[in-house]
Amino acid sequence: MPELPPIDSTYLVNFLVELLKTPSPTGFTSAGIECVERALAGFSSLTLAHTLKGALTASWSGQKDDHPRALTAHVDTLGAMVKEIKPNGRLKLSQIGGYPWNTIEGEGCQVFTAGGKTVRGSILLAKASAHVYGAQVSDTRRDGETLEVRLDALTTNAVETRDLGIEVGDFVSFDPRLEVTQNFIRSRHLDDKACVACLVSAVKTLADAGLQPLQKTHFLISNYEEVGHGAAAGIPPEVTELLAVDMAAVGEGQNSDEFHATLCVKDSGGPYHHGLSQFLRGLADAAGIPYKVDIYPFYGSDGEAFWRAGGDVALALIGPGVDASHNYERTHLEALLATTRWIVAYLLSDNNTPKSPPKG
Ligand SMILES: [Zn+2]
Hints:
Blueprint: H1 9-20, H2 30-40, E1 46-50, E2 56-60, E3 64-74, E4 79-85, E5 91-96, E6 108-112, E7 118-125, H3 130-133, H4 136-139, E8 147-151, H5 158-163, E9 171-174, E10 179-181, E11 184-186, H6 190-208, E12 215-222, E13 241-245, E14 248-249, E15 261-267, E16 270-271, H7 274-287, E17 291-295, H8 302-308, E18 314-322, E19 330-332, H9 333-347
Helix pairs in contact: 1-6, 6-9, 7-9
The protein binds zinc ion.
Zinc ion binds next to helix 6.
């Protein structure tokens, strides 16, 4: 394989930072989708469109179209909705996506009212003061009953909170608390904005080098992954291979780390497609991309959402190692560059499944 074109790491990090700063909890993702759309609109060879569900699609004609491909990453993140306005004017939350309640304690947040206003606040134990509640503060189980949103607004009762425009069903986003230090990116929502940034950077890498994908390629920036059905729609039926790009799970006993990309061969949904996984290993080996192979114990991907929806494709999953996932996450530029290079190598490669007949 010829040398891969160089990746603009400054662009990659800057775009990731912009996307991380754009709130997009599942169900309320239009700002995140628009952020990606603005970036992809700069590449004239892409044809952009929206699905009715609100996802963004981009298509790129390849040198060949006998085995069209798709790649997907998701822009939606964990978040919450206002479940109840309490008599003291504070809010109870209903979770969007799966995360332990204690991981959002102390975080700043925004409430998006139906009227288009934004109200700042923070998530705390209802009995938070150590001087008032003593040992209860550490002994209390964190859940939807014991945590509340303290609004940065003048309200002491439900009527005053409703006067702010807040109502049950309003979306709530958690502050990313983003910091970039020594090429570490520490932030909430690296799952999966890190991978969206890798996809966009891969497109830019090819475009800057005056290249196009070898096969016709569709991109799906999905917006309902965290609740399990993001890529169930939005992948064109002509597609024969799907590469899901999503974070790798780092922790005790895991192969993945913050300095590599990972090929996930199995997660809670079972094994991925062996042939396509082997093909991706070969690409990484040939290009000298630092990667790990791993199994994620509590994990599902948008690729599996497509499989479950009846998608008949070879499916594989790659992504950068993310520490403390669905918590206060962190990754390193090395993992992002490895993932982006892997995507670039895939885009420039010919099809993996010569024996299967083309569809259509
Ligand atoms: Zn994810």
